[in-house]
Design brief:
This protein is mainly beta and 213 residues long. It is built from one helix and 13 strands, in the order H-E-E-E-E-E-E-E-E-E-E-E-E-E. It has one domain: Galactose-binding domain-like (Jelly Rolls), CATH 2.60.120.260. Helix content is 9%, strand content 38%. It has a six-stranded antiparallel beta sheet, with no helix packed on it. Strands 4-6-11-8-9 form a five-stranded antiparallel beta sheet, with no helix packed on it. A two-stranded antiparallel sheet has the order 5-12.
Length: 213
């Protein structure tokens, strides 16, 4: 009985805090870690709802933050060609939003399983060692669940670089880092979404293609 009351009070306190601040302060995070295919870790700021359960003492789990300091996003400062298989749901939600380094923007499309392609300029074939996703602001059912990352040097013949299945997310604006088993060097990179979490649309706020610094 006491444990139950403690949990309710803890949830009520956090809920009130969220309603007042909208987003919890830096340092209050939720985490999710699993081993599906290649290694990855994730962490995201908690907003108004959680997908994880609190600990038995009523507190919420604190994550191990995602560390990308050893990487550089190969798309930064590069005028690559960004395309997708389907048009966005709204003009302001185009596919270029995935590479604008702004988590407040997103690519949203009325297709649960689109593909997204990034073509580097001629002669540029970065050696990608990892990549990351960041979820968008709403509609968790639109998050990618299963996909294949591919590479190509002509845009016609594709090689599978990485594949993920059953990927879950804890929160909105959550960052996930996926480390490749072996570096991949191509001019074209394509994300082929195989399934989302049940929504009629697909969305993400950011994609990064990492090389070592």
């Amino acid at each position: 009985m006491i444990k139950h009351m403690t949990l309710l009070l803890g949830v009520a306190f956090l809920a009130g805090w969220c309603c007042a601040e909208d987003v919890l302060p830096i340092g209050h995070k939720s985490s999710y870690k699993t081993a599906v295919g290649t290694e990855y870790v994730s962490a995201g700021l908690i907003e108004k709802t959680w997908k994880t359960d609190p600990k038995v003492d009523g507190t919420w789990p604190m994550p191990k933050p995602v560390d990308t300091s050893m990487y550089k996003d190969a798309t930064d400062g590069v005028k690559g060609e960004i395309t997708a298989s389907t048009a966005p749901s709204a003009e302001k939600e185009g596919v270029k939003c995935l590479f604008d380094n702004d988590q407040k923007t997103k690519y949203c499309t009325p297709n649960a399983t689109p593909w997204v392609q990034y073509k580097f300029p001629d002669g540029v074939k970065p050696s990608i060692v990892a990549y990351s996703f960041r979820t968008a602001n709403d509609a968790a059912e639109r998050d990618p669940k299963e996909w294949v990352l591919q590479g190509s040097n002509d845009g016609k013949e594709w090689t599978d670089i990485d594949a993920q299945k059953g990927v879950e997310y804890v929160s909105r604006f959550e960052l996930k880092l996926f480390k490749l088993k072996a570096a991949a060097s191509y001019q074209y990179y394509r994300l082929v979404v195989k399934a989302n979490h049940g929504g009629e649309h697909f969305q993400l706020s950011e994609i990064e293609l990492f090389v070592n610094k």
